[in-house]
Structure formats: C-alpha cells, structure tokens
Amino acid sequence: MQIIDSGPQYSSGSKAEINMVYVTMLTLVATLGGLLFGYDTAVISGAEKSIQEHLVTPLGLSSLAHGATISSALIGCIIGGAISGLISTRLGRKKALMLAAFLFFISALGAAYPEFLFFKKGETSMGVLLAFNLYRIIGGIGVGLASAVCPMYIGEIAPAEIRGRLVSLNQFAIIFGMLVVYFVNWGIADGKSIEWINQIGWRYMFLSLTIPAALFGILLFLVPETPRYLTFINKDEEALKILTKINGQERGKEIFSEIKGTVAEHKSDIFSFGKTVIIIGILLSVFQQFVGINVALYYAPRIFESMGVHKDASMLQTVVMGLVNVVFTVIAIFTVDEWGRKPLLIIGSVGMAIGMFAIAIFSYFHIIGIATLIFIIVYTASFMMSWGPICWVLISEIFPNKIRGSAIAIAVAAQWAANYLISSTYPFMMEFSGAFTYGFYGVMSVLSLLFVWKWVPETKSKSLEEIEKIWQK
C-alpha cells in the first residue's frame, strides 16, 4: 500500500509538471524522522537536572560524568551516522528509516525505565546509570540514521526547483520536534515539586517519545523507495513510475535518463570524484556543530537559570526560544530556492558571530538581563535561518549518486562526533570561563563564514546530476 496521489499539477513558475500533493506527502512522512531527531535530542533538556540528581550526584560522580551522561545519545548518533551509508545502500532508504523508527521506540521505553529486568525501580547504582546510557545510545543510533537518511530520501525524490525547500522542511521538523518536547517537558513539570520531577517526571518526558516513533514506523509502510535508489539496484520500471508521478511523463523520462547515465558511468569508490567534495561535506558538518548550537539547545534551561532566572521561568523562556527557532526556519524554507545556499549561510554566520561575541562579553562582566536573552535569540535565529537547514540541504545534494550513501555517512558521522565533543565539554568549559566558552563559538562562526565564501559551491536550482558535473570538472 502506498500514499495515493491526486495526479500531476503545475507548480507556479516551473516549466515541469510537478505533482505537489504527492511529493509533499512523501516529504512530510520522511520529515517525521526529523521530528523524532529533534524530539529525542531535546527531551534531555527538561530531564538533565533530574538525571543529575537521581543518577549522577548520589554516586559522587563529577561534572564530566554528568556531561558524558547527558551527551551519551551522541555516541549512538555517531554510530548511526557511520553505518547509515551501509544500511541505506544495502537495505534502501525506506527500510533504513523503518529501522530508525524501531530504535526510537525501544530507546524511549528503556530510558524511561532503565531499571527494567535487572534492577529495582527507583534504585540508584552504577548499573542503572549504565543502562540509562545504553538506551540513550540506542536512541542515538536511530537519530544518526534518521539525520542521514531523511534528507537523503527527500533529496532523491524532490524536483530540483523545490529541493532546497523540501529538504529544509526536515530541519523545520527537527526544530518543531524540539519545540513540541519543550512544551511536553514544561507541561509535565508545571506545578509539580522538584522532588516529583526528579523521581517520576523525567520518566514521563522520555516515555512521550513512543507516540511519534510508532506513528513514523506505521506511515513508512505507505511510501515508496526513492527512484534513484531503485535505479541503483536496477529496478528501472519502478523508478520511472515514481519519477513520472512526481515530475510528469516527459520530465520524468528525462530525469530517469540522467540518473541511469550517472549510475552507469562511474565506479562507486568514495574518492572517485576526488577528495574535495568529501572534505567540503565533512567541514559543513563540523562547522554546523562547532558554532555551539546544540549547547544552546541541550542546556537551554540551565543557561537561563545561570542568569538568575527561576526554573519555571527558564523553561518558559526555552519555549519562547523554540518558537523563534520555528519562525526563522520557515524564513529559510521560503528563501533557500530563491536566494541560494551560500548567501543564507554567510548571513547566518555573521548573525551567529554577533550573538556569541555579545554573550561572551556579558558573561565576562557578569551582566544578567533581557539583553542576554535577546542575543541568545539573535544567535539561534541566525542559525535556524541558515546553518540549521542549509547544511542538511547541501549534504543531501552535493554528493554524486554513486557515492551518496557512503559520503553522507562520513559527513553525518563527523557531524555527530563534533556534536559530542562540543556538548560533552560544555560543563567543563563553563567551569573554566563562560566568556572563553562563548567566545570560542563566536570564533567558529567567523571561520564558518570564510569556509563557505571560499569553498562551498552554489547548487540552487541544479538537478543532482548537474551538481555531480561540478565534481567531474
């Protein structure tokens, strides 16, 4: 069974027939993986102090152990990203996403009840702490798979004219998932005592993830495999059928012919198109994390509390920040195919640098107030309209067809490794110096600007096969 399309429709401003209803429905199902990505990575923001009080502090462990526990899912993300190429190539894009949905579901149950089978509920021991970390790592593998395969799936079904917009919807889903879990965490904690939250509330936060995970797994049965993967495994008739549904008969045949040409002409060695494209993909991923965005997302309530804001108010301000993130991600969605990838990345880097350097100055002079919140929002808004969605757009489209699975796996694994390094060292860096910490992220923002200006090619409105010719040259 597959999603039923409503026939070809003409997209405004495009010469090609594009069935917008059909391709949008396929995209929305795929972006549920992005929503789970955001939900799973941000759910820890509401539970991290409870985890510290319930599992870390009673064992006499240090801030480094706390940081490692809060960031443990990122180990799984690195694993999931690294194996995403193998799984998406061997099983296909669709089955890889099904596996991710299953891992999300199992992780949510286990993280909510890490004592399951081997320990007494409510027990605090090293064994329970390790079990919690294990379940978070399992969920991280699901995140790593989804982070690589969701934009890959969308990029391989999307027409060139609207590919940037559709892949950016995945980032919107990530941010929307984060916003949803901010509300869920806030709703669970609202009006409850700290003791209740530390004992029970944090379990409900993790358990809530089972609902979208189950929905994602069910809906994946209704979508087809991507036409480029079907061509790769010589299922040409199915590939042409899907391309025709999405692009119309004439354009569908043209795209199918281009895909067949790229699949037939080149070997699948990872460096068969040179090292430059691989290096650019890795650096895009690393800079997206080294600018410090996930520190703001994972530790948002604690950042506000450190500025003298009460816990309930800090959770509310985190929700406000989440709303701002959604608004500016929408801006990226509506401009990425009009302005192009490079201009948005450069504008975003400037905004992030301004935000982080301002926060560093405020931290150095111990200034706490609305100005600090404003510059945190300037920073996150700049990221959400640029590096957040555009990095995923570029990673989904810059790699040639033959090596896309393996190359995206390398880039995504590098991204999660950088994420883990930045997130796990944040508590330790803050103990050393808040001004130095935020200043470091500001410097990374400046370097990201120089990298994009010098190295990253513009890919706006180019088909995946046209982009491949850039690296052939």
Helical/strand content category: mainly alpha
Number of helices: 21
Distance between the termini: 42 Å
What is Rg?
Answer: 22 Å
Describe this structure in words.
The chain has helices spanning 20-56, 63-70, 73-90, 93-112, 126-157, 163-189, 194-207, 210-219, 227-232, 236-247, 249-265, 276-290, 293-298, 300-306, 311-339, 341-364, 370-384, 387-397, 404-432, 434-455, 464-472. The chain has 473 residues and is mostly helical. The chain starts with 19 loop residues before the first helix and ends with a helix.
Keywords:
0% strand, 78% helix, mainly alpha, 473 residues
At a glance:
By secondary structure, the chain is mostly helical. The protein has helices at 20-56, 63-70, 73-90, 93-112, 126-157, 163-189, 194-207, 210-219, 227-232, 236-247, 249-265, 276-290, 293-298, 300-306, 311-339, 341-364, 370-384, 387-397, 404-432, 434-455, 464-472.
